[in-house]
Please model this.
Amino acid sequence: MAKAAGYDVAVIGAGVVGCAIARRFAIDGASVVILERGHDVLDGASKANSAILHTGFDAPPGSLELDCIRAGHAEYLEIRERLNLPLDRCGALVLAWTEEQTAALPALMDQARRNGIADIDPLTAGELRRLEPGLAASVQGGFRVADESLIDPWSAAHAYLYQAIAHGADLRCRAEVAGGRRLADHWQLDTTAGPCAAGLVVNAAGLWGDHVARLLTGESFFEIRPRKGQFIVYDKPAAALTRHILLPVPGKRTKGVVVCRTIYGNLLVGPTAEEQESRDEAGLVPETLETLRRTGRKILPGLAECEITAAYAGLRPASEEKSYRIRADLSEGLITVGGIRSTGLSAALGIATHVARLAGRQAARPVHWLRMPVLDQFGARDWRAPGNDGIVCHCELVTRREIEAALSAPAPAHSLAGLKRRTRVTMGRCQGFYCTAELARITKGRLSQPMSRPADRRGGNGDAG
Amino acid sequence: MQADVAIIGAGPAGLAAAAELARRGAGRIVVLEREAEPGGIPRHCGHSPYGMREFRRIMGGAAYAARLAAAANRAGAEIRCRTTVTAIRPGPELELSSPDGIARLSAGAVLLATGTRESSRVQRMIGGQKPGGILTTGALQGLVHLNHQIPFRRPVILGSELVSFSALLTCRTGGIRPVMMVEPGPHLRSRRLAALLPGLLGVKLRLNTGIAAIHGDGQVTGVTLERDGRGWHLDADGVLLTGEFRSEATLLAAAGIARDAGTTGPVIDAFGRIGMDGYFAAGNLLRPVETAGACWAEGRRAARAIAAHLSGRLPDAEQGVPLTVESNAIRYALPQMLMPEGPGRHDRIQIRFAHPSYGVLELVQDEAVLVSRHVSARPDQRIMLPLPERMGSDPVRLRFRART
Ligand SMILES: Cc1cc2nc3c(=O)[nH]c(=O)nc-3n(C[C@H](O)[C@H](O)[C@H](O)COP(=O)(O)OP(=O)(O)OC[C@H]3O[C@@H](n4cnc5c(N)ncnc54)[C@H](O)[C@@H]3O)c2cc1C
Ligand SMILES: Cc1cc2nc3c(=O)[nH]c(=O)nc-3n(C[C@H](O)[C@H](O)[C@H](O)COP(=O)(O)OP(=O)(O)OC[C@H]3O[C@@H](n4cnc5c(N)ncnc54)[C@H](O)[C@@H]3O)c2cc1C
Model:
């Protein structure tokens, strides 16, 4: 819905943060365009995370990050039912395995309370093992944070995006911002999909945030230092081993390795925290995955009997400082949202409200709600319903009707990766052994990155093959 | 819905069992198949050879699958496609999902014949990125034979099992020219492959070589190969993962039924019974991976056992004698529980070795050697050992003494 002089707002980057910001401005009545360089949305930092809706119990007291997490968490709870988004309020257990960690517990509980988290229950080793009988006997003590929850990281971000679109926002994929000029009262952006004009630019380019800042203004007040996190995923039976999210006492540098279920019914062990140069390559390292496997077994010995179905890695858009790097320069028509490191999924809605406030806008119009498809394991999945048109992905029980819906969504899937995030196809234990051919048939001519192409016609004999 | 026998999976094992049960007049026989067509794996294997044991002629996979389905239909079994069994429960009772939503089916007996799949990239612990163009043979064959499409042109092939050979033929059909075939072990895993090597369509083969990492963003651009700790880069636009089969045992895992780490399939007794009343298993679900003919024969055998079960003629499970494997050289031995004679009994123990082995196999009970046999076995060879004529009630141990 571009106005003659262009859009009110251009959001650069369709990660979870950019999607939430676009939603906020669109609901507030602004004309919004989202510029994304990928074939599909959520292909940067937002493609891989632990999917925990944090409470902020361990965030730095008094920080903007804490405010955004608290506000984001609250708004998620407020809107999720109208968007049909799942929530598993399973709670987290912070576990101490050594004397040193045990000694650190009181300060952590104190910080949690100061951060405004009410339900903090200290627990002895015996109490912990009564709550979670699968825990290793060597656990020494810990505490429970009741409101730490599991969500569907992709459905949430897609919902924000679809809602923005329902409020008139435009999404342009394969539109990499390559430069821009500030003219009298608006920006003229150059993208690989053509020029684009907007009054206000919000830089939410995640792992490329500093790069985009430099493209626009010649400098950046922060430096992105990508930090990789690798995970292993266990097959569904493993999810019976714990109900809570199992967190370690955080080390000096990182939150440490988490063991938790996913909303889809699997069990995760990860992430690692590895500094690296590359902003695109989130490579898997077998030795690291092996270490994760051992770590997981030390926490939940029952994992020794469980099968691994997948592994993945994500990059946190960390910066040289721990804090969020959000800055508004309204005279230049620019808001930069950088360094949303490891809590962006939880904080996205809160960040969006903060950014809208910085821009001096507030909600004015009635809101359009829409219902997201159900992907959580225990929800009313489509395979249970009549008219589903049959199961295509047998491991994750994804129906043809769900795939068709994702291919014709407000922002339809453009790549297999995008289709996976919208439906979970091929993400299960067989990783495509059974359903690849069927999926290729359904998606033929409908993805900008096709799964296959016509076979060459070989000359000569028709062969035995 | 009700059936006398419900069969899960319309592959060679399930269809053979269905035809045999129907012929024996075992009542209403329903085969539940999640794909749109019956036939199982052979349906998308365009290549020969199938059918020697069953039909005494060599046929392509699709024709073979159609013939098995026709035989089951003719005998009076019902085949319901696009029907996935989503849970197995005591009863026996099944939960099904079809285009019409969920439903339940109770049956006098259930045969699980859900087959196998190849290991994925993570199960093989291959590092690197996750671009498009990483496929198993099963996925490639579906694309090439069913869709006439290809996902890559110059892939690296990992593995040298029999199925790897089948993968090569499929590549040829699709006009795909593999850059290299690599096998992490010191030997080819299939002797048939070795015999055919000279003619392997000009594909280079490297032993002792594995794939350490996969590179590429949208599509595979190359791999890091590794040999003796030394790595090097090879350009390729795809990775074809062949073999390393594992049982499609999802339903068992969810129902908490005991599985064997060696076979990855269910623990069975000599009648194919698994640890839930009224449930039987046959075919490649039991252990990856035998030929279609072997699975077909197992399906027929299971049909005889099920028919006997329905008329109360099977020996009690309590009479079982556990078989324990006492050698690391042996990858698995099946069935895991030996039984006295009865209809449809596995009369021989199936054994696979982990490495090429030469020596003496023995079945021992209370230090008495019941059966003894000299073997010279490769991992791609199935060794069959007859069940002892007579045995007591103590566990029977399977021993292997290597000779040099
Ligand atoms: C291992 C790991 C675990 C995590 N666990 C959790 C968790 O449990 N809970 C939680 O709340 N958070 C978690 N996070 C953090 C969360 O995932 C991130 O904070 C969040 O995804 C950041 O989103 P973003 O939108 O800022 O960045 P991104 O998702 O990277 O989005 C930026 C987008 O901008 C696009 N872009 C870049 N340059 C340009 C350009 N020039 N033109 C156009 N588009 C461009 C990119 O393609 C990308 O799509 C985790 C992160 C990681 C890596
Ligand atoms: C690539 C490849 C090439 C091969 N080439 C040869 C060859 O040349 N010659 C040869 O003899 N053998 C060959 N084999 C082996 C042969 O195909 C198998 O041995 C045979 O198909 C096994 O039969 P089965 O009935 O046990 O299982 P499958 O054929 O695997 O059938 C299992 C069936 O169960 C269905 N199923 C699974 N779970 C469910 C569920 N929950 N609900 C409903 N249905 C379900 C599946 O859809 C499938 O149709 C090959 C195998 C592969 C993978």
User: Anything to note?
Assistant: Residues 458-465 of chain A have pLDDT under 50 and may be disordered. Chain A touches chain B through 58 residues (CB under 8 Å). Residues 15 and 44 of chain A are 7 Å apart (CA to CA).
